[in-house]
Automatic annotation (TrEMBL):
Stated name of the protein: SRA1/Sec31 domain-containing protein
Organism annotation: Larinioides sclopetarius
Listed InterPro entries: SRA1/Sec31 (IPR009917), Steroid_recept_RNA_1 (IPR040243)
GO cellular component, one term: nucleus
MF terms in GO: transcription coactivator activity
Length: 151
């Protein structure tokens, strides 16, 4: 059987799941435009944006009930990498999205924060790849804290 461009290849269940996840990330811009992103006035000063982002992350870390030193040190290391990148080579778009993500987290809107995270990973992977893992852990911690409080 000869495959032609445009022919679909049968996928296994795992491949289908991966394709759905990737498609979801690629469509994240459309999802964000539909109002799931927090509406906010972004400060023009990079220092103010960074201060808000870091304080939001610190609040999540402080509120997390299951503190373990090793993961917290790794998250701190990643956030330090973010701070260094912030002052050297981080684009304005990434900084603004990080502000919006922090605002979503501070408002308890985990879904919006996850969508922004996914968008950053898809569109700005070269800028964020070294430190975004730490941010993902912070989002997960916020989600777990909310789940634990609702029990």
């Amino acid at each position: 059987m000869v495959m032609k461009i445009g022919d679909s290849i049968p996928d296994s269940k795992e491949d289908e799941k991966l394709v759905k996840e990737i498609s979801s990330c690629l469509n994240v811009e459309e999802n964000l435009k539909e109002g799931s992103r927090e509406s906010c006035d972004i400060p023009e000063c990079d220092v103010e944006i960074l201060k808000f982002v870091k304080s939001t992350f610190q609040n999540v870390l402080e509120d997390y009930p299951r503190k373990s030193e090793r993961p917290l040190k790794e998250i701190d290391r990643r956030i330090s990498l973010m701070e260094k990148a912030w002052y050297s080579n981080l684009s304005t778009e990434v900084k603004q999205d990080m502000y919006k993500m922090a605002q979503a987290l501070s408002n308890g809107n985990i879904d919006s924060a996850e969508k922004i995270h996914c968008s950053l990973m898809v569109h700005y992977v070269r800028e964020v790849k070294n430190w975004m893992v730490g941010v993902k852990h912070i989002i997960e911690m916020k989600k777990e804290s909310g789940d634990l409080q609702s029990l």
